[in-house]
Amino acid sequence: MTLRAALLLLLTLVSTAFPASGQQPGVTDKEILIGSSNSFSGPLAFTGEQITKFGVDLYFKVINDAGGIHGRTIRTIYYDDGYRPQDAVANTKKLVEQDRIFAVIIPQGSPPVVATLDYLEENKVPLLFPYQSSPVTRSKRYVFQGMTLSDRSSKMMIDYLAGPRKLKKFAALYQDDEYGKSFLTAFEKDLGRFGLKLVAAESVKRGVTDVSAQIAKLQAAKPQVTFLVLVPGPAAQALRERQKIGWTGTLMVSTGPLTDERYLALAGDAAEGVEGLSLWPDPLLSDLAGVRLYREHMQKHFPKNEPNRYSIAGYFAGMLFAEGAKRAGRNLTRDSLVAALESIKGYESGILPPLTIGADHETQKQGFWVRVEKGRFKPLTDWLKSE
Amino acid sequence: MLSVEDLSISFGGLDALSGLSLEVTEREIFALIGPNGAGKSTVFNVVTGLYRPSRGRVTFRGDDLLALAPHEIARRGVGRTFQNTEVFRQLTAIDNVLVGRHAHLRSGVLRGAFGLASVRREEAEARELARRLLARLGLAEVADTEAGSLPLGYQKRLELARALAAEPRLLLLDEPAGGLNPTETQTLMKLIQRLRDESGLTLLLVEHDMELVMGISDRVAVLDYGRKIAEGKPREIAADPAVVEAYLGSGDGA
Amino acid sequence: MRRAALATGAVVVLGLPWAVPRYFVFLASLIVVNSIVAIGLNLLSGYTNQLSFGHAGFLAIGAYTGALLTIHAPALPVPAALLVAGLVTAAVGLALGIPCLRLEGLYLAMATLAFGFVVVEAILNLDWITRGNDGLRVPAARLGPIALATDTARYYLTVAVAALLILAALNIARTRTGRALLAVRESEIAAQASGVHLAAYKTLAFVLSAFYTGVAGGLFALVVGFLSPDSFDVFLSVDFVAMIIVGGLGSVPGSVLGAAVITTLNDSLAGFQNYRPLIFGAILIASMLFMPGGIASALRKLSVAGAAGYPGTAPPAAKPRQGDDP
Predict the structure, then answer these.
(1) Quick check: C213 pLDDT over 60?
(2) Of the candidates B152, B184, B206, which is a domain's last residue?
(3) What is the ipTM of this complex?
(4) Residue B111 included in any domain
(5) Are residues B173 and B243 in the same domain?
(6) Could you read off the pLDDT of B117-130 as tens digits, one per residue?
(7) What's the order of all strands across the beta sheet hosting A127-128?
(8) B–C: how many Cβ contacts below 8 A?
(9) How many CB atoms lie within 10 A of CB B187?
(10) Do A and B touch (≥3 CB pairs < 8 Å)?
(11) What is the pLDDT of chain A when averaged over all its residues?
(12) In CATH, which of 3.40.50.2300, 3.40.50.1820, 3.40.190.170, 1.20.1440.20 is domain A21-147+287-356?
């Protein structure tokens, strides 16, 4: 009988813990609730914490302090998935069905994001600005891309290097997964337009940091340019290995997701002279009005947290959401948000160039060229376009 | 029936047994005695396949036991108890006996999983037999008690019941009277004799209790430092000066 | 009384999807899947004292087998696909169990831990079929004319499979095989002296354990709908070990309770983000200190009458040993 009593109690608790359903999930007179499953433990815990708590939430603090959007403050809720897809699925279902969030904002990593993609689309929940670069998330009614997708990055990189820089022999060191392979496919296609091919391509398994064998093979192919499509750890290792064996005949070029300060710190002086496509202006040094404001806000709310590319990406995501919600008006629904985001034209963020989101739902289509000089990224070009 | 020839085994350079030979005949009660460390339990462990000797032969009813694994030896009819009782502590007494019955039961994992009628019948029969065995050894009341929580005397009897459930032909008893009071020892002596007389078992025992050894053994062998120093009928052994010397020398009169 | 409790339990389990919000149906399915893994792990660790830190590997094998069958042989009914997933995993269990016979304790833990890593590597290397790190989307499985496309449908599937497997585990536990496994755990020499083939039963424990975990893997694939090597990291194996320790070593009801507790805990701690591992660890340590025999044994102590027990519901205690006479 104790068992029965316990189960009944459990059932009662479970069913009362659940809020009554409103008309539009996550939107009340006073509040908008959004959130995501993210990495707060596991390999990308640092990134996860920066894009959410020090990025999205930083911008929302600013907005809420100024009275919110149409009288509503924005509240966020995040769950940890530790980069495990099944936990991302569980967390996302919980967010949608139990917490009844309005939209998902900036979840991280291809596997966790892809695992929830169909579910969110079926339930018409906006998936906003996922922090990943594979094009697998394209062409969904309720998905808006975040990071510049790999095929666009590739086009800008090849157009610049094979165009004005007149380089001809390209090789790639790529991570053996969706991230790496989506770049590889794009490189081959874009080189084809110039009648070129990759002279060598070596893969690195995820989690592996010893890349000496791959570097030796790439050196043997004598490329003028070696693309690094990796994460900070192995990429820094590749640069040090190159320095160790004294291979100077190639230009190392990092892809957008990799071009960040953490990777520079790991590589030390081995990173000098490395070039890359940067998706964000320098968060510490840029004079752009939006970036200066971002630094001021960070200083005000999280003075101990140094500005970085991850938190600025989250900050920008928060800014875009706020802009969409503002345009959707007082009658905020998931469909009115989608329509509002699609209507954004020439939006001045002060961080990225004027932004227009069309039917393709892509919020970032550009990057600019940088070279590492004395441990910082020095811009070499203005914004490059991928259209 | 059991023949041990020229058995030698050493542990870490120390000879536990050297050149030991024994011949146990059918329906005999044969006792092994000797001071602690003389190698008595080692003989048991070699016969039951737990130790591999460096030299020698062990045959049981024509089978070379040294070529067999412990469970195969058990299945050929050699049962045993242990000096420091080895009951399955967290199993009930009756389950202990049922494990003893293992080799006689047929149900495997698949038939067991599906709970077939044949399995249920076999189980019921085995339980009935186990209950009879427990009753015979005065353990009926503790059938459903966890073996580990039973007093030592009960555990000793339970080990015996478990060994008997396998219907052995040869039973090795390692200090069966150890830790028992005089009344319990008397009951045990009667039981051992009945096992031989009524069930036709052959018994090989290691025992320190001289009253028991002298009272029921047909023959006795004395071990000292891994060697057999005497063998014969109990009366002859008691009078043997070498035996007296070995016991007095070790200060262990038991 | 026992009958009444069972009937109530059955009503609650079957009625659950109609009484609770959708999310809890999904969570309940995960609990059921994890229960099957916990029972499987308990057959190995609780019954024969062979601790495994590689069960995420078995789960992965079952999951990928089940998923690939669902994708490439959609006509195959779900029960058949799950059976194949279990059998393939059992075969791997056999292959792992034989070399592991020589290992005990820490060494066995290390070997099984390594096995978990090997499975993840294998999934990465077989990317032409597993899609490697990109992950594998699992379509809804079919049971005759019905597509198991909703959380509720998948929940009933997992419950039906789990009911069969729990019944089988209980049957095994109280017949010859279960007793032999427990005997091996309690005393290897006495088990052998009773005619129990030590190597065969230790290997059997691996095979059975792998079979259960493999079937659970097949269900996991259907319930979650997406597989990637990231799903099967070492922390998942640790979670499984936590389930049987919290629930009770060697107990089938304990396995289910442990799975429920750990799965729910993991779910509710997801909101604590970076503190999750810390809180999780603290709760584990506390439960080991205050409930050394797991929930199953704590419940049994509370109400001896109500427990659906059978032998061996507490972890093996240290045996008092006197000096041996070699």
Answers:
(1) yes
(2) B152
(3) 0.90
(4) yes
(5) yes
(6) 889 999 999 999 99
(7) A73-80, A31-38, A104-105, A127-128, A143-144
(8) 132
(9) 14
(10) no
(11) 89
(12) 3.40.50.2300
